[in-house]
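Predict structure. Chain length: 382.
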Amino acid sequence: MRTSLCLRGMWGTLLAVPVMVWAQWAQLMAPPPGTPSQPPPAAPTPSVAAPAALPESAKEGIRLAQQHCPSDGFDKEGCDKAIRLLQEVARTDPDNADVQLALAQAYWNSSYRESPQARTRGELRQRALGIYQKLVDRDVKDARPYWELSLRQKNETQRLPLLKRTVALNPKHPQANKDLAQAELAEGNVDAAVSSYQKHLEVSPYRDSQDAMDHLAFAKRLEGVGRPDAAERVAERVSGLVEGERRATRCEIWRSVDPKLYQGNTQVAQRVRALLPYCTRTEDLERAAELERQGRVDEAIEAAKRQVAENPKPEGSYVLLERLYQRKGQSAQAAEVAVRQLEEDGDAHERCERFRTLAPATVRAMSKERVRALRRACRMPE
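Prediction complete.
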């Protein structure tokens, strides 16, 4: 399960943590350098639906479009070939929605490869919009064109009827119920927004902590329009959804949330209070991270030690200390830090997750008996 957190500008009133604090924490818990990252898509990804029976030429055109036209890994030559093939199929079979939708998406993604001032950029987008609009005007019994067209509207008022039609045709659409709730709330229809968001929570699988933050951002909006009851129900649902996340991630999620969203729920409030020490009172940890960036390793070690003495709960303190000792070639000290954390952590799942992330040199410096015991407890190969 991914554990990335993106702090978006729209959450200004929701978030209570300085951006610098989160940036420092994220750096401590970040994957090793060289881990590949995915660039943001240039255009919305296509809808997913069961394919209809297609002739071979249509299948080939769609295959080429899927391979060469996505915003990530776009290949102009391959995408142009897909467009030519799809255009030919569309001329002979204009009612084939799968072909039309693939062609529209290929046009749309291709437009991003044109100069912003180029006339062809606007023409490609108009072709895509024209395809979506034609399918919508025909009132096709397929949710995809309504959804795709909704993504390209300028305001919520224009999106609203398209989103309603999308969920009417596909009630389990993974995103449309959420967007419908946003549009309904913007239009002042709070009860409808509450209902639509509840449907979103029911049908959309939880993916990662970004989903949790999105849910809580919507809960904050509900609280702001006088529906604390609905906001509290969303927060309660989030509390259950994030149980599979690492403790540090759960702590960062709740650290950023207005307590009013959950203080009326005793069980959730207790969970949050138990979590917060794992990512608060971290001034010395932040100082240690800054000293490490400056190359002042010995001073960083002392600051991290002060953090452990002041508040020993944040995992980042031990992660940083282990790394700093390894930088100095002091594997025995790194192992000592790791063992202390592992022994003091009463959560078996967190203990195993931490053990899996230890540097190989740290593990080699630990006693063989302890390593064998941890491997058995964590069901890892000997």
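Summary: Residues 1-50 have pLDDT under 50 and may be disordered.
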